[in-house]
């Protein structure tokens, strides 16, 4: 239920001239699910489907866009920092510390899949198995990357192994999540964090080192919880936006490549 409309969208550009793109389809829904606050205008669709803004602007942006998401805690503080998105030539992610991995499309064109081979905690590595019937050598994409999902979801069996390894690796006092949503929580130190060994997500051709804040978040004062959770009945795997914070993430849909660059997104 809603209204669909067509309009010319105008974007600021690095060329100093604004860029106007005609005939962009957008809509206003009147029966919406999900959680929206009055501070939010709506959803900006970046998926691979025909109606996403990425595909509607395909000729102008040549399949390239990038975003840099600020960490969650800055959204609730007094910081004026905001996340940023770029399209076209200005979205190319480059530099000596950039890592790149293939991006795959499957039956549902909306989703972008990466291939996760395993996760290391300290000097121990867990091989990633995306479902009971899959094989580690299956390398055509096994986890969705999504800027619109908050948490990171993994299959139950992999989560259980990951949680066990984290519990062995973290020397801090266990706590319960007061909201009863997250399973693995700890009392934080005076800096509001906990000490966690180096955590690396091993994608095809790209080892992504995650910071503690990428996988643990403050739920109330003095308590942080793991933001990787079991996928449950769906058994779908999603790399959520908390895990993507403080990376400049560039999509090149013509080259089928996704790039990560560690970045202070408040300064990007």
TrEMBL record:
Pfam families: TAXi_C (PF14541), TAXi_N (PF14543). PROSITE patterns: ASP_PROTEASE, PEPTIDASE_A1. Keywords: Aspartyl protease, Glycoprotein, Hydrolase, Protease. Gene3D superfamilies: Acid Proteases. It comes from the Eukaryota. Residues 1-261 form the Peptidase A1 domain. Signal peptide: none annotated. Belongs to the peptidase A1 family. PANTHER family: OS07G0603500 PROTEIN-RELATED, PEPTIDASE A1 DOMAIN-CONTAINING PROTEIN. This is Aspartic proteinase CDR1-like.
């Amino acid at each position: 239920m809603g209204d669909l409309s067509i309009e010319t969208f105008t974007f600021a550009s690095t060329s100093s001239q604004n860029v106007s793109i005609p005939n962009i389809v957008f809509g206003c829904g009147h029966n919406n699910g999900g959680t929206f606050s009055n501070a939010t205008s709506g959803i900006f669709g970046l998926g691979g489907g025909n109606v996403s803004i990425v595909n509607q602007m395909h000729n102008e942006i040549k399949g390239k866009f990038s975003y840099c998401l600020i960490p969650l805690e800055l959204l609730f503080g007094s910081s004026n920092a905001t996340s940023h998105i770029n399209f076209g030539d200005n979205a190319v992610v480059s530099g000596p510390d950039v890592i790149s991995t293939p991006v795959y499309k499957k039956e549902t064109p909306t989703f972008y899949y990466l291939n996760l081979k395993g996760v290391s905690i300290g000097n121990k590595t867990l091989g990633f198995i995306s479902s009971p019937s899959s094989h580690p050598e299956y390398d055509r994409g096994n986890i969705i990357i999504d800027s619109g999902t908050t948490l990171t979801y993994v299959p139950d069996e992999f989560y259980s192994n990951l949680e066990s390894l984290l519990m062995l690796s973290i020397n801090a006092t266990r706590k319960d999540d007061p909201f009863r949503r997250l399973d693995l929580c700890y009392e934080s130190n005076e800096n509001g964090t906990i000490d966690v060994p180096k955590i690396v997500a091993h994608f095809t051709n790209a080892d992504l080192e995650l910071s503690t804040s990428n996988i643990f978040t403050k739920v109330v004062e003095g308590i942080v919880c793991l933001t990787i959770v079991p996928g449950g009945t769906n058994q779908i795997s999603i790399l959520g936006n908390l895990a993507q914070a403080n990376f400049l993430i560039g999509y090149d849909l013509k080259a089928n490549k996704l790039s990560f660059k560690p970045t202070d997104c408040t300064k990007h």
